[in-house]
């Protein structure tokens, strides 16, 4: 409001949500009739004369609820009276979002499960020994866990193969059959030719068996956690899965381990809220797509984006892809548009975005797609 307006106050109507609220805006004019004609009265003089000073009047007025607040209260009352639950006499229970944290004080620390199988080091690219996705991605993690004596502290879980039906919950029959047909195929040239049809894929004679083993082991780990045999756990597996699309192998991935395991938990374990955190440096576009309409799985990814120039170079990896239909609001991308990110940056994302979301969502299970290519020293895509 400009300084030339010579009114004591003006009224503006402002839309706030669906309700129209009246907002009083004080003007800047000072030369009003009221002020000119008002006599100066001291507080003591006012008390004697049993009248109120302007200050006293304002104090009383400020205690009155504003027109906007009265209007909002009226709307809320109407909404509550019209709600079907209220009219049917049903009790509405609102759970305190911090209750799980309070309950966890009583939780006794349980065992951590670990799942790995040395056969997973057999999968490798026969025609390119320098292919970035290599057996060391499995062996170094297991070795490091051994060095730190972490494996001794965990409950060893037995890997298992996934069933066809389990894999078909997230992939097409054609995709499954094609990979199965490559099993034990030693024809290097034929395999190389097949892989040229896909982005960043190699197939080894063991790839099918190990892909099935990776999916089954992830499901088995989830089952052990959901049934409270272990409190949490880690599956060290290859080939990876978060780029494996419904009907296409992609980015070193054949079957989407985590997505299939999450679907298993929904379908067979009665879970309704799963938080899927993906901190691999690449966006897990396949995991995103597989639950894009599903509010039961909240997909949260932190990934290098570089304004769309970093692989997988997809517009859908940006922050404004938030889910659709019932799943709208249940897909959260945190794209990083510069390198040189530090622990503090990641902690800020965790504390300022992930944790508030997790507290609201109250997941029954948290699954982490824990790719290590965002860490310092990764020869492929070091962020530093
Ligand atoms: Zn990656």
Automatic annotation (TrEMBL):
Q: Which molecular function term from Gene Ontology is one that the record holds? A: histone deacetylase activity, hydrolytic mechanism
List the catalytic activities from the record.
Answer: N(6)-acetyl-L-lysyl-[histone] + H2O = L-lysyl-[histone] + acetate
Q: Which domain of life is it from?
A: Eukaryota
Q: Where is the Histone deacetylase domain?
A: 132-376
InterPro entries to which the protein is assigned, alphabetical = HDACs, His_deacetylse_dom, His_deacetylse_dom_sf, Ureohydrolase_dom_sf
Q: Which Pfam families match?
A: Hist_deacetyl
Q: Which SUPFAM superfamilies match?
A: Arginase/deacetylase
Q: Which GO terms describe its cellular component?
A: histone deacetylase complex
**In its UniProt record, which GO terms are filed under biological process?**
epigenetic regulation of gene expression
What's the protein name? Histone deacetylase 6
What organism is the protein native to?
Answer: Pseudolycoriella hygida
**Gene giving rise to this polypeptide:** Hdac6
